[in-house]
Amino acid sequence: MTSLADWFMKAVRVGSAFNPVAAVFLQLQSEVDGIELNRRIDNLEDPIGSICENSQELCRSIYESFDIHGVSLSNEAYKQFSRPLALFESKGYLKRDMYSGNKYAQGIELVDPSFTLYLARLFENQKNMADLYDLVENCEIGVWIDGIQLAESLNIPVEVVRSVFKIHVQNGFGILSNESGTCTYQGSV
Hints:
Elements: H1 4-16, H2 20-45, H3 55-64, E1 66-67, E2 70-71, H4 75-80, H5 82-90, E3 94-96, E4 108-110, H6 113-123, H7 126-137, E5 144-146, H8 147-154, H9 158-170, E6 174-176, E7 184-187
Antiparallel strand pairs: 1-2, 3-4, 5-7, 6-7
């Protein structure tokens, strides 16, 4: 439902179109409205990237610091990204490993596999990702896939492979080994 003020503003806009001076202000208002509309669309298209101002920088730093043990940022990065890290943690995307006596987190655990895949979508070679999905999607019943070897052969982080496995397990398509130091998946459907 449109308010009386909205109707009034619409009438003013229509009337000002015939006045050359007012038409300039009408065009300016349209530009401002367009900028706001684009910002709102960007928020809908990329809700993670629009959480805060430097979300994309943090995402890149996280992805570039993947290793076999998880994610570890420098103290400078923890200081620079403290607010977005707290926001990402509050949304359930990651968990910071905090210890008493330490000013900064000692590591980051990515707890939401869809967040890890979001990072891969932004920063990973998409052909390699398509190959990964194809291999996991076509895994035969009872066949085990070694995620560490797969990550090495496709040149992608093991955590990305593990996240694809986790998504398939959540959908009931297979099982993921919980053995320490491994990343293996068995197809079951």
